[in-house]
Amino acid sequence: MRVGPQKMGLSQTSVLVDNSCPDNTTGESAPEWALPAHPSYPNPQIAEAVCEFRFSLQPGAPWQATSLGELFKVLQPTYPQLEPVTEQSVELIIAPDGIPVQKMGASRVRFKMRHASQPFILMITEGVFNVNALAPYPGWATFKAELEAVWPHFIHVINPAALHQIGMRYINRIPRSTDDESAGMWLRESDYVPRAVLGSGPGYVARVEVQADALNRRMITIAHDVSSQPGALIFDIDCVWKHDAASAWNDVDPELERLHENVWEIFNEAKAEKLDELLSRRTD
Fold this sequence. Notes:
By secondary structure, the protein is an alpha+beta fold. The chain is 23% helix and 35% strand.
């Protein structure tokens, strides 16, 4: 089971809340696919949001390490750091006797570029391109603006033949204040949050995977992160659209908005009153 971006034990993940959709004050008409604005909270807790694109290369144009260098060169003014990151995949298999067994997959190297002044990270390897927003979460409008800013450089240098999957993932961490605090203090039962996990004692893990329709899959994980004491509540929402699509920004933009809306709806339906109070608390 994959609980964090790489594994359980997230560095500083937090609560999901949309603080990034202000009212339209520019006077410009909204596009046809524009979605309603969400509340803006003074105390947002989001620590990591991940937008992942899976793509294929042009026929007869295999992945070249030189392409990575070219991409880094054009992005270097804003992303001056480049480092390799080796990832080890882990698959959880239920054996015939019912005992879960971990199977180690092949390792792969991804390359990470870190923004000079903003909480953004780019991750790229053959067939996969990620844009991550870290804490302090800058809001959806700023996050999407950064996606739009780097997108033409990605398209120009990597030149993908097509996109095959877009994922929008928010990994949320709510610090627990006591050892006996339950998930039900922060979340309520919903389509994706089972009642049983809300009243569970420490050490709970619940995962729901739903094929919403032929193209859309939703994966929600609720878990007790015990990497510290008394730990934290992990609420991981991952919405994936799997479909062959053009890579032009005008084609990508509405899908990003829709996926972001899917994530928000899942969170909004599950957040309890105490979570609203936390998000509304002013810290200045």
